[in-house]
Amino acid sequence: MLHVLYFVHDLADPAVRRRVLTLQMGGARVTLAGFRRDQNELAAVQGIMPIELGRTHDGRFGQRMSAIAKSLFRLGATLASVDRPDVIIARNLEMLAVANRAASQFGGNIPIAYECLDIHRLLLRKDAAGKTIRAVERYLGANARLLLTSSPAFVEHYFRRLSGLELPIMLLENKVLALGEDSEGDMPRSRAPEAGKPWKIGWFGALRCRKSLALLSEFSRRMEGRFEIVLRGRPARSEFDDFDGFVSNEPHMTFHGPYRNPEELAQIYNEVQFSWAIDFFEEGQNSNWLLPNRLYEGCLYGAVPIAMSGTETARFLATRKIGLPLKTATADHLAEVMGGMTEQDYLDLFAAVAAQDRSNWITDRSECLALVQRLSSLTPATRPSILPEAVSQPHGNKGGLL
Questions:
Q1: Is the CB of residue 96 less than 8 Å from the CB of residue 90?
Q2: pTM for this structure?
């Protein structure tokens, strides 16, 4: 059984739980180690007691670097009881530093996979600071043998053009992990609101975008109760002046806290008709390139996605002829697109989403096995050859190499 040592920047991130479950379903044994930002019992994985490397705080880059530096000095003692892993996965750049130190302490040629699912704005700066951090990434990535990322646009716009990393790349889209066999009970069903009830737009997952919150607030107030905004997940409170106070003062917006992913997805998405698949957090950069978790989650359960034109999400939806694109990020335009929504309009939009092949949205057991098999192939001492560039292939690559 392949033993994977998985270093993560946030043990409370639900996406970490999903990756651990994916590796386990693929037949790997996982040791999880990382930093704690906050408590989130819903992100716990049964049977795994994570190794805590320290505490960090969201939005405080300097504090995070200090915490990582301290963890490196005591890493040998921290990992003393851990069996030598076959492969190390480092989630995000800062964990790549920890992975390199761990590999040297275990001795031998332990392969490292670099998992990068967001391109931080610091990596894209054109000044000396940006050049420096990209140089750090290239230095730390020199010992890696595989890059795991979630969007072809990350490869096209950053890894091939700017990063300088020369690694084989495996695309792992942010699909919903299928824990069991699909059933007819899981198939999406239309849910137009009853007469007099509001249409509901769900914004679920990592809530970090002030612009989205303000836009949805203005739109829902303008619609005077015809639309309700439902928020669920983990707010990045460092990005908001007062998230809870703001939402509590909104007449048509509610926040229901975190949820268990993937176990509670059907329940929460079946309560809304539309899914907000827009993020302006790093507008023009990472936000334009990502394919977010909520895109796959909402479509799987028949929530009609709302996307921003010109983004990778909008292009993804356009190839499938589904969803609602916004040309401009204003409440006026959102009201123009959504304000006249009828039941038949919704049913047509829903039918287009429901007709899609569910493999577009689901990571099944075969893809879990493929990931673990790919990681297993790294274990020989010989470094894999760099594959030719093939970024232009269409979406829907099932965990394949780019």
A1: yes
A2: 0.90
